[in-house]
């Protein structure tokens, strides 16, 4: 028998309505919390890249958001190319993750080699291996561009290698010029910041030229199922996003805290010159940090595309600023702080969108940023430490 307020009389009917309203309010709150944790997991993955690079170089890599965006578009390319091959969804997803991580790792290495290393130390002309990587990357970009545009004609297949070789020759000439000065140099932090912003603008507009400015819709990859727990709906993309994010963050924490590579990374972050005197190849450690951060951004890009479906060339700028805010909120340079900041920011944005207005969702991140900088500049888990000299 279904209860109805008329069954309880006047007083009972009022109590029934209050209980029902409270139950709906609680379900709505829990639903917003689930959505916030999902979004916060993506922010946390991106924020880890910011905080790892800052911990070693004290550099805010503002191009990191564009690496995230490239990862989302690589996933789109994989889904378009392999979507009709009849592969199971988990294999298609794994291929997208691996391809995005590989491409974004190369992109992170390129940013470190092309944009930052010439300002931090002696720049040498590119070697044969690096030239080959650039050539392959140029060919891959050309191929991806035409796949998204509708495919290459048989007469155009030779253009991909030609574009790659042209890029290799151009970069070799650039670094032959940059490497002529010889001795290492100490560049002002402002120059590094401007370079990071320039690299961000370059990547953003390059992707706009490659894929266009309109939104792209990712195809349905995951099985269309969900379940309801106590009135709260949980979908497959949400479970996947949180599960993959937590796994990646746990593996990164284990790598940094429990391995020799992690010990070398922590030593380099604490004192780069002392680490060099102890025999640590700090240049290799810096490259590895860029690779790890870019791989996490690639994973975040794939998960973002699967969860939100729509991507464009501008998502990296927006997500990058929010992830930077998350890193500052938790304490930039602190890995647990980046995770905490990402989750808190995702929860705040989800609750604000649900209870205030979705049009204000991008404002909440900057309110938090201003508040943290005013009240606790070191972040929630950060410590006030003297600047490295």
Automatic annotation (TrEMBL):
UniProt KW keywords: Amino-acid transport, Cell inner membrane, Cell membrane, Membrane, Transmembrane, Transmembrane helix, Transport
> In terms of one coarse class, where is the protein primarily found?
membrane
GO CC field: plasma membrane
Q: Does the keyword Cell membrane apply?
A: yes
UniProt-listed GO biological process terms: D-alanine transmembrane transport; L-alanine transport; L-isoleucine import across plasma membrane; L-leucine import across plasma membrane; L-valine transmembrane transport; phenylalanine transport
As for membrane topology, the entry says: Multi-pass membrane protein
Pfam families associated with the record? BPD_transp_2 (PF02653)
Where does it reside?
Cell membrane
* Molecular function GO terms recorded: L-isoleucine transmembrane transporter activity; L-leucine transmembrane transporter activity; L-phenylalanine transmembrane transporter activity; L-valine transmembrane transporter activity
Origin, by domain of life? Bacteria
Q: Which InterPro entries does the annotation name?
A: ABC_transp_permease (IPR001851), BCAA_transport_permease (IPR052157)
Task: Report TM segments.
Answer: 42-60, 67-85, 91-111, 123-145, 157-178, 190-211, 231-256, 284-308, 328-351
Give the family, as the similarity comment puts it. Answer: Belongs to the binding-protein-dependent transport system permease family. LivHM subfamily.
What protein is this chain from? Branched-chain amino acid transport protein
Q: What species is given as this protein's source?
A: Gloeobacter violaceus (strain ATCC 29082 / PCC 7421)
